[in-house]
């Protein structure tokens, strides 16, 4: 896996993934940024959410669950002092679909958290406490 991050001036950068996708990284105005892109720590947090949600959908599809939507809401706490690392992250999944079986949803989320999500494993190895919960929404 490769990537590139190029400085474009002030506190703005263009990040490009090895697969050719780009994202603007910027800082807040009080740190020299213009607030036109995502912050680096926000990107890290969203990477965790994307990694975990990817796993959950993959597992649920294999379990033949009729998922219509799956969102994960992330809430993170950071250390007060530099480096202001993440100390706690909570993932709240909202899964909507037809005839969803709660046991399958719970299992998918647990498997992602405990076995498959590389981002979660890396953050946990660094001492971040990661928790999760979920809610199911049945569609008609």
TrEMBL record:
Q: Which Pfam families match?
A: OsmC (PF02566)
Domain of life of the organism encoding this protein: Bacteria
Q: Which PANTHER family match?
A: PROTEIN YHFA
The name this protein carries in UniProt is OsmC family protein
Q: Which organism is it from?
A: Entomomonas moraniae
């Amino acid at each position: 896996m490769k990537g590139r991050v190029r400085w474009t001036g002030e506190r703005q950068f263009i990040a490009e993934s090895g697969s050719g996708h780009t994202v603007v990284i910027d800082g807040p105005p009080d740190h020299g940024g213009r607030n036109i892109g995502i912050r680096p720590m926000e990107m890290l947090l969203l990477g965790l959410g994307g990694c975990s949600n990817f796993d959950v959908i993959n597992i649920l599809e294999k379990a033949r669950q009729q998922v219509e939507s799956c969102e994960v809401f992330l809430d993170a706490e950071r250390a007060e002092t530099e480096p202001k690392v993440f100390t706690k992250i909570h993932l709240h999944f909202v899964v909507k679909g037809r005839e969803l079986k709660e046991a399958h949803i719970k299992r998918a989320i647990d498997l992602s958290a405990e076995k498959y999500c590389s981002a979660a494993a890396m953050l946990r190895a660094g001492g971040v406490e990661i928790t999760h919960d979920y809610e199911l929404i049945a569609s008609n």
